[in-house]
Specification:
mainly alpha, two-stranded antiparallel sheet, 2 strands, 69% helix
């Protein structure tokens, strides 16, 4: 895998802003930057590990059962993440709740296992998982930062607006997630068009 392919996963082919994948956890957990980081790192870990294992065992999996086999592999790593977060970051685990186990059916994770890891070598698959995971984490963090600043007037618990600008509660509610994501996607597409010309 070329370095440009790795960086393309992060910026040019970002799973959220470009491909619009994994929007359910993206919209649900990004009320704060900490939540976005937690979900992003959990998904990155699962992507890297599942891509690596799928690439390693692909020739031993019969074609008829490849998707169920991939899901079992992914679910194993999601269980590790779920138990680890419950033990060491319990408060974050309670906030993210059901969205951690739902990483199993996140279309980014299963899609990368099926479309890339099952057809490429171990190192390339690892880098693909890392690139897509970092791109997902970056998008979550950008969206979460916007929502936290606009909706709470703070970032990571520190006041940003200093009480001068009142927070707009809409941005910590579900409709605010759609609005913020829409504007960020528009900005992303505008920047991409300007840089490609």
């Amino acid at each position: 895998m070329k370095l440009s392919s790795f960086t393309d996963c992060i910026i040019k082919n970002n799973a959220i802003f470009k491909q619009m994948l994994g929007l359910c956890p993206t919209l649900a957990v990004t009320t704060t930057l900490i939540n976005g980081l937690g979900m992003g790192f959990a998904t990155t870990f699962v992507l890297v590990c599942s891509n690596t294992v799928v690439s390693s065992v692909k020739r031993f999996i019969p074609a008829k059962v490849r998707i169920p086999a991939y899901i079992v592999i992914i679910a194993s790593f999601v269980t590790v993440v779920d138990l680890f977060m419950n033990a060491y970051t319990h408060e974050l685990h309670k906030v993210l709740g059901l969205f951690i186990p739902l990483i199993v059916v996140n279309c980014i994770v299963l899609g990368r296992a099926e479309s890339f890891a099952s057809k490429n070598g171990v190192l390339d698959s690892l880098l693909d998982g890392l690139g897509n995971g970092l791109g997902f984490t970056l998008a979550l963090c950008v969206l979460a930062s916007v929502r936290e600043v606009l909706g709470s007037g703070s970032l990571l618990g520190f006041s940003i607006t200093g009480g001068v600008v009142p927070p707009v509660i809409l941005f910590v509610l579900p409709p605010g997630a759609f609005i913020a994501l829409g504007f960020l996607m528009a900005g992303y597409n505008w920047l991409r068009r300007r840089t490609e010309v």
